[in-house]
Design goal:
Blueprint: H1 2-11, H2 17-28, H3 33-84, H4 93-220, H5 227-407, H6 413-562, H7 566-683, H8 688-717, H9 735-841, H10 848-882, H11 892-895
Helix pairs in contact: 2-3, 3-4, 3-5, 4-5, 4-7, 5-6, 7-9
């Protein structure tokens, strides 16, 4: 099942992680459609090549196993044939030829398998190169993807910052608009109050005028004694008329001011409506931007999740690649092991083949030797038989001669004694021959036993050698098994490491998701709390609005009740005039402040220009420094190259010195050997005469041996020597047998010639193919080397440019941060100036601090002016109120009620009123009062 799933996974290209990643990148817009199509086609082609290569490897492995089984079978057959070693005969010759053709076929199959294995290795090398190229392309795509993500994040970061800045600006604008609205409302209320006060004052003046007219009409009917008083009253009336005209003018001006105030109120209401609309628009824009920011935040979170998903997919792909690489490594190891076993089998097969050919080549010579030995043995046996017969005949003749001799004993006793001696010698020689025969039989038995023992010991030695060889093979197999187990343990450790990394990644993602869930729940709780707070605040504002409406109605009633008081109205008029003067002074001060701020802005602009020049100078200096750094880096690279060349020269010099030292040592050894031989020659100098004598004797022996050899060779080559030739026995073949044998030999010769031609053609094709493959490999190796050098150069340039770009980006970020800070300060100053101008246009102080300072200075000025004018104002008020002049000191407590909250005019004789004791008085010890003695 696992193999089927692996085959399905290998053949199914559409479900691969690489194509899914390419499709996702094309859908996201990070890759163009043409680039995605090109990458898909390239990946599909490489995948098909990989599948075909794996299938070809499996076929080759199965074919190698089949060839190994065939080689094993042929080896068993050869061993069986070598063990039997049948004698060749005309009937067995075709079978031997068939075995030889089978061996040749097997050898050709082995050579073809070796050629296929070589092609597979070359294809494997090409696939390795393609896999390395694919890995490099994958790294490039991964780096480009990361670069695109960084660029996307860098492109979104300014938008996010701009949106946040806009949100802050809109919130500030809304706050400023609310403050302006509140100030306008307060000012409108004040204007309405002043308008009502002016109208009340006008009504009071009209009532007073009518009363004075009535008084004047009544005074006209009085007597003459009251004429003086009438004159006084008429003068007073004239003064009142003048005062009335002035009051009418003032009322007209007040009406005009009221109309202008109404117009300004209408403008303010319209401006308030526009500000409210602007505020609503700003709130809508803020809400929209907040929604956009939330969407961007969600997109960022989704992008982070997708990045985590890509990372997990990448880890899974890496694990799959590692598993495939390990599987490929195991397959290669198994293939190498099988190839090694096949090579060993081929070597063993070649050895057995050589041994078989040697055995077959030596078989005819051994058979000839055996036949010759049989013939010699037959001759020796026939000679022995003839000798035995001759010996018997000699014995009979000797007996006959002995009898004859005994008969002729009287011929001579000396010859009889000689004969007896010769007879005794013959008997002794016969006994000696018998003993020698017995000894020969014993020696032959010993030789046979020794040869059998030698064969037995050789068999034991061969068995032990085979056991040693089998033990070595078993040790090699065990070593291979141990190596495989070590590789498996290493692969298991690598898999465990990868699983640990994947577990860490999953745990980090889980922690991140838990943190996101907690943050979202916390934000939901905070939003609920904010909603509750906002509902409470709206309720509080509604209650405050109701209470303020009530207070407003009550204040209006109090204000309408207070309109009847004339002194209060005059005080209001004086306060209005004072406020006008104060506003005029504040306007002048604000104009001066605006001039001052303009001067500050001009100075800031000059400073900004100066900073800009400094920045340009710094950029030029930085560029010069960068160029200098690049030059120094180039010089450093040149120095590194020089150092490398000098190290290479130094290393070659050291190698040459070492070689010279070795030559010196060898020469010293030769000198020592020459001195030793010289000493040895000196030691044997006194033996030279003996050596000369032995040389002369040896030369004489050599001449004698050469002469003897020449005689023997002449005797051997002489045809007159009948002992050196014999008649050959056997069958003489006729013409038919010879023609059949010649035809068979010609057929075998033609077959061998055809096989030789086929092998020569195959050799030519294989040599041409191998030369072409070697040329392609050499060309590809040169191109690969050149490409690797270019890639290394480009990578070095990219790293250098990246470092320079990072340095430039860091400097730009620093300058950008400083410029953003200065821009923020400038915006704050501009905002403050705009707010001050708006407040000045609205008739308010530019800032609260300026207003407080102006109030303080004005209060001090008024306090200084109040001292000399207080008495005069008091007298004028009293004169105007009663119409009677007096120089009496006013009594502070006489006319001012104690419950009225106005300051009492003590003048320069104010009573001492200490403040209440604070909380720090508890740390002060109370004084002990002394008793009064009366």
């Amino acid at each position: 099942m696992g193999e089927q799933s692996m085959d399905v996974d290998l053949t199914d290209v559409t479900s691969s992680a690489a194509l899914v990643a390419v499709k996702a990148a094309a859908e996201d817009g990070r890759l163009s459609s043409e680039r995605a199509l090109f990458l898909t086609e390239k990946y599909t082609a490489l995948h098909d090549a990989l599948v075909a290569t794996m299938a070809r490897d499996e076929q080759l492995v199965s074919k190698a196993e089949a060839l190994n089984s065939q080689v094993a079978k042929s080896r068993e057959k050869i061993d069986a044939q070598g063990a039997l070693l049948p004698t060749p005969s005309p009937s067995q010759t075709p079978a031997g030829a068939g075995d030889h053709s089978t061996v040749e076929t097997l050898r050709e199959d082995a050579e073809q398998a070796e050629a296929e294995v070589t092609l597979c290795r070359e294809r494997e090398q090409m696939l390795k190169v393609e896999v390395a190229e694919l890995e490099r392309q994958r790294e490039e795509y991964r780096s480009s993807l990361e670069e695109a993500e960084r660029e996307h994040a860098a492109a979104l970061a300014p938008q996010i910052r701009a949106l946040r800045d806009e949100i802050d600006e809109v919130s500030k604008e809304s706050t400023a608009s609310a403050e302006r609205e509140q100030a306008l409302r307060v000012e409108l209320n004040e204007i309405l109050g002043r308008t009502e006060a002016v109208l009340g004052d006008e009504r009071a003046r009209q009532a007073e005028l009518s009363r004075l007219k009535d008084t004047l009409a009544k005074s006209c009917a009085l007597s003459d004694k009251l004429r003086k008083q009438v004159d006084v009253v008429s003068n007073a009336v004239k003064g009142l008329v003048q005062h009335e005209s002035r009051l009418a003018d003032k009322a007209a001006s007040t009406d005009r001011e009221a109309s202008s105030l109404d117009a300004s109120a209408r403008e303010l209401s319209e401006e308030h409506a526009r500000a409210a609309a602007t505020l609503e628009h700003a709130r809508a824009a803020i809400a929209k931007k907040e929604r956009t920011a939330d969407e961007i935040r969600k997109d960022l979170e989704i992008a982070g999740l997708e990045a985590d998903q890509h990372l997990s997919d990448q880890v899974a792909i890496n694990m799959k690649l590692k598993a495939v690489g390990q599987e490929l490594k195991r397959e290669r190891t198994a293939l190498a092991r099988s190839l090694k076993e096949k090579e060993q089998a081929l070597k063993k097969y070649k050895k057995e083949d050589v041994a078989l050919s040697n055995a077959r080549g030596s078989a005819p010579a051994l058979q000839t030797t055996r036949d010759q030995t049989k013939q010699v043995l037959g001759l020796i046996e026939s000679q022995c038989k003839r000798h035995a017969l001759a010996l018997d005949e000699l014995k009979r003749e000797i007996d006959v001669h002995m009898n004859n001799y005994l008969k002729e004993e009287a011929v001579g006793k000396e010859k009889s004694v000689l004969f007896q001696q010769s007879y005794a010698e013959v008997a002794a020689l016969e006994r000696e021959v018998l003993a020698l025969r017995k000894e020969e039989v014993a020696r032959l038995g010993l030789i046979t036993e020794a040869s059998s023992q030698r064969e037995r010991m050789s068999r034991d030695a061969a068995t032990k050698v085979n056991k040693v060889r089998e033990t070595k093979e078993y040790i090699k197999v065990k070593d291979l098994v141990i190596l495989d187990l070590k590789k498996k343990r290493k692969e298991t450790h690598t898999k465990l490491k990868d699983c640990t990394q994947l577990y860490e990644l999953v745990r980090n993602q889980r922690n991140k998701f838990v943190a996101l869930i907690q943050a979202s729940s916390q934000s939901i709780a905070e939003m609920k709390e904010k909603l509750k707070i906002l509902s409470n605040e709206t309720e509080i504002l509604r209650v405050e609005a109701v209470s303020k409406d009530r207070l407003l109605s009550k204040a209006r009633l109090d204000h309408s009740a207070a309109d009847s008081e004339r002194d209060h109205l005059r005080a209001n008029l004086n306060r209005c005039a004072l406020q006008f003067r104060e506003r005029q002074a504040s306007v002048d001060e604000q104009i001066a402040e605006v001039d001052k701020l303009n001067a500050i802005i001009n100075m800031a602009e000059k400073d900004m220009l100066h900073r800009k020049k400094q920045y340009e100078t710094g950029v030029e200096t930085r560029n010069q420094t960068g160029i200098t750094l690049i030059d120094r880096n180039d010089e450093l690279c040149i120095l590194y190259e020089k150092r490398t060349m000098q190290e290479e020269v130094l290393r070659q010099g050291e190698l040459e010195l070492q070689r010279r030292d070795d030559e010196i040592r060898m020469l010293k050894l030769e000198i020592r050997e020459v001195s030793r031989s010289t000493d040895a020659a000196r030691k044997v100098v006194h033996h030279i005469p003996k050596y000369d004598e032995s040389a002369v004797s040896l030369q004489q022996q050599l001449l004698e041996a050469r002469r003897k050899a020449q005689e023997l060779s002449d005797a051997l080559e002489s045809p007159e020597n009948r002992d050196r030739w014999r008649r050959l026995e056997g069958k003489v073949p006729d013409e038919e047998e010879l023609s059949v044998k010649i035809g068979y030999l010609e057929e075998r010769y033609n077959d061998k010639r055809e096989q030789l031609l086929e092998k020569e053609l195959i050799l030519e094709e294989v040599s041409a193919l191998s030369e072409r493959l070697q040329q392609q490999a050499a060309e590809g190796r040169a191109d690969t080397l050149e490409l690797a050098k270019r890639v290394n150069g480009y990578q070095a340039k990219i790293r250098a440019i990246t470092r320079r770009m990072m340095a430039t980006v860091s400097e730009l970020s620093m300058y950008k941060a400083s410029s953003m800070k200065l821009q923020q300060e400038r915006d704050e100053l501009v905002e403050r100036i705009t707010e001050a101008a708006a407040r000045m246009d609205a008739g308010l102080a530019p800032t609260e601090d300026a207003e407080r300072d102006w109030y303080r200075l004005e209060r001090e000025r008024l306090e200084l002016e109040e001292v000399p004018t207080a008495a005069r104002d008091t007298h004028q008020t009293d004169d105007k109120s009663t119409g009677i002049r007096t120089t009496a000191e006013p009594r502070p407590n006489a006319y001012v009620p104690s419950d009225l909250g106005i300051p009492r005019p003590y003048g320069g004789m104010a009573p001492f009123k200490p403040s209440e004791a604070g909380s720090t008085m508890r740390f002060i010890r109370r004084p002990a009062p002394k008793e009064l003695l009366i």
